[in-house]
Amino acid sequence: AQSVTQLDSQVPVFEEAPVELRCNYSSSVSVYLFWYVQYPNQGLQLLLKYLSGSTLVKGINGFEAEFNKSQTSFHLRKPSVHISDTAEYFCAVSPKSGGSNYKLTFGKGTLLTVNP
Amino acid sequence: GAVVSQHPSWVICKSGTSVKIECRSLDFQATTMFWYRQFPKQSLMLMATSNEGSKATYEQGVEKDKFLINHASLTLSTLTVTSAHPEDSSFYICSIGGSSYNEQFFGPGTRLTVL
Fold first, then answer.
1. Tens of pLDDT, residues B72-88
2. Could you tell me which residues of chain A have a Cβ less than 8 Å from any Cβ in chain B?
3. Given CB 3.0 to 4.6 Å as the disulfide criterion, which of A33, A65, A113, B112 pairs with A50?
4. pLDDT value at position B43?
5. Residue of chain A whose alpha carbon sits nearest to that of B57
6. Are B46 and A45 in contact (CB < 8 Å)?
7. Which of A49, A60, A37, A44 is nearest to A93 (CA)?
8. Residues with Cβ within 8 Å of residue B79, at least 6 apart in sequence
């Protein structure tokens, strides 16, 4: 089984400031890692994913995340945020193998609020 | 990525009635679809996994007789909330499994309010 912990439920920042949203996971098997963004009353949009290879992955809207296997973390970062980045961000994992076990396990989410 | 639509986007119904929510894959043949519910300010909880042409697999604690899922074609899955009650009010989101099965594409969600 997998579990995902997003350490901060809310992160307020000022516009153009850098931000880091933290995510730690637990799993007995190797996993793929994802970050999704959800704007109010909308579904989820994939920001980025880590499948294998380079531990630093770049996604849409200027976001990037770094996979750290020893710390079982996958923190999301952006060097300069915009008002439009205000949204809920979800970290998720999926087992790499297991037949039909391609379920996503989500963290509880982090609400990023960018203030002017 | 694949484009997923849901209909309706929001629905209000009276307690005791049934509501059907449609999830369509517009440009991808989806053999696997997932249904989630999300309570306000909470994460997504997987309700069930549906495979085209077979019975859905429900997560522990989800009543399969209350939440009927039908995945009759590669582009359409439906979730019917039977005899809805106010506690069923929630945001229901569907997703489809990508071709590589390591990511999912999500619909825009359906807001259900039961009075």
1. 888 999 999 999 999 99
2. 32, 34, 36, 41-46, 49, 51, 90, 94, 96, 100, 102-104, 106-109, 111
3. A33
4. 86
5. A100
6. no
7. A49
8. B20, B21, B23, B35, B47, B67, B68, B69, B92, B94
